[in-house]
């Protein structure tokens, strides 16, 4: 019988053993967890989800500097935001290896943990185990695939039935129905799986969504999990998915202004570079499953947010990626380009020869990616908004 604490939660030693076995599951082999262990993970996680708000309010972390007997060491503690995983368990393990394991690293996942990949059970069990073990370090939002109507069709139901039984799938469904649907980081960055809704005017509406709940076919909750940005749309448009809407840059600008926000971070769509900006960098799509489903030639991405709400991207390449071309080398150089939440970096002027303000550091990065250049020497001082040194060469054909 599984050990439980007086509060009815799983014993930390039991959780640590489950996590250890799951982390050992490399090489694509199935991890052997018992039905009872998985059931308890779901029940415990469900309790925690309901004890926390539907709109998670997450403080941006602090910078910790250790004054030691040897030279000073500085560590940047930041939140890591991950997009869709879709049962690609080996890539999830690589993501933790790259970004760090809880509790040393904090994570917010944007949904879509199951379906399509070969190991949805291992994927969701590891995430639930980390959530139960470190409830204030790991946060999971609901995606449109954390819905019985969807994962009944796209693979998770079949995996549960093949490896265990339908009863266990129903227990997962009860757990998924309690997941929070949005998170607010530092009062400025709003995160959800899908996007905006015509019904969404303020954040209090998200807080008022009742749980547990199925995902309806329309309305606010449906849109938060299903809607997509579309640069060709003004206002709201019909979605090719047959569910929810698309929204234009004007809807993003309007919503951010009305709610005093700087950035929307969402998942839901595969993007080639793992992340993709929209509406003049007011919205970013994050997708964390590289070589998605074995059919897309995409990389995965992880978004880090530090205590100043400065964001940076980490790139997760496919396991079978070939040797980097000149363009991929460039993108590797540029993947750490940072952007400041709330404002564009100020325009830059050359100290000599004297010119009018010309471009921002972000525009430099975009330009170099566009023309296929390799950075040979890219040293930037943003004191007084000046670029002091910039040298680059065209990539070899």
UniProtKB/TrEMBL annotation:
GO molecular function: metal ion binding; protein serine/threonine phosphatase activity
Entry-linked PROSITE patterns: SER_THR_PHOSPHATASE
Pfam families given in the database record: Metallophos, STPPase_N
EC number of the protein: 3.1.3.16
Gene Ontology CC annotations of this record: cytoplasm; nucleus
Cofactor(s), by name: Mn(2+)
Ranges for domain Serine/threonine specific protein phosphatases: 141-146
Catalytic activity: O-phospho-L-seryl-[protein] + H2O = L-seryl-[protein] + phosphate; O-phospho-L-threonyl-[protein] + H2O = L-threonyl-[protein] + phosphate
Keyword set, alphabetical order: Hydrolase, Manganese, Metal-binding, Protein phosphatase
CDD domains per record: MPP_PP1_PPKL
InterPro entries: Calcineurin-like_PHP (IPR004843), Metallo-depent_PP-like (IPR029052), PP1_catalytic_subunit (IPR050341), Ser/Thr-sp_prot-phosphatase (IPR006186), STPPase_N (IPR031675)
Top-level EC class as recorded in UniProt: hydrolase
Family: Belongs to the PPP phosphatase family. PP-1 subfamily.
Protein name in the entry: Serine/threonine-protein phosphatase
Organism name: Morella rubra
């Amino acid at each position: 019988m599984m050990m439980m604490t007086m509060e009815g939660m799983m014993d930390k030693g039991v959780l640590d053993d489950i996590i250890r076995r799951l982390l050992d599951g490399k090489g694509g082999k199935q991890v052997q967890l018992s039905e009872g262990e998985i059931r308890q993970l779901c029940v415990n996680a469900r309790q925690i989800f309901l004890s926390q708000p539907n709109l998670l309010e997450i403080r941006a972390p602090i910078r910790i500097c250790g004054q030691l007997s040897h030279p000073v060491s500085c560590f940047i503690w930041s939140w890591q935001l991950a997009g869709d995983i879709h049962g690609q368990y080996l890539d999830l393990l690589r993501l933790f290896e790259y970004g760090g394991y809880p509790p040393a690293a904090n994570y917010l996942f944007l949904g879509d943990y199951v379906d399509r990949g070969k190991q949805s059970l291992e994927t969701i069990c590891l995430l639930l185990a980390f959530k139960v073990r470190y409830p204030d370090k790991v946060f999971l939002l609901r995606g449109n695939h954390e819905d019985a109507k969807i994962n009944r069709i796209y693979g998770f139901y079949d995996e549960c039935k093949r490896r265990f039984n339908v009863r266990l799938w129903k227990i997962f469904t009860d757990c998924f129905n309690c997941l929070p649907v949005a998170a607010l980081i530092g009062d400025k960055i709003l995160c959800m799986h899908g996007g905006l809704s015509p019904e969404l005017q303020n954040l209090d509406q998200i807080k008022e969504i009742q749980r547990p709940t199925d995902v309806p076919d329309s309305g606010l909750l449906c849109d938060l999990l299903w809607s997509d940005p579309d640069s060709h749309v003004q206002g709201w448009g019909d979605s090719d998915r047959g569910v929810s809407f698309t929204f234009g840059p004007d809807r993003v600008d309007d919503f951010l202004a009305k709610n005093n926000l700087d950035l929307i971070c969402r998942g839901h769509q595969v993007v080639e570079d793992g992340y993709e900006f929209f509406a003049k960098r007011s919205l970013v799509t994050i997708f964390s499953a590289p070589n998605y489903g074995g059919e897309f030639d995409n990389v995965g991405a992880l978004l880090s947010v530090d205590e100043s709400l400065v964001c940076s991207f980490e790139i997760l390449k496919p396991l079978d990626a070939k040797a980097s071309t000149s363009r991929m080398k460039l993108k590797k150089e540029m993947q750490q380009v940072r952007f400041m939440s709330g404002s564009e970096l100020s325009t830059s002027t050359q100290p000599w020869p004297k010119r009018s303000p010309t471009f921002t550091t972000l525009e430099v990065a975009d330009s170099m990616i566009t023309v296929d250049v390799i950075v040979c020497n890219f040293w930037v001082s943003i004191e007084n908004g000046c670029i002091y040194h910039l040298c680059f060469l065209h990539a070899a054909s």
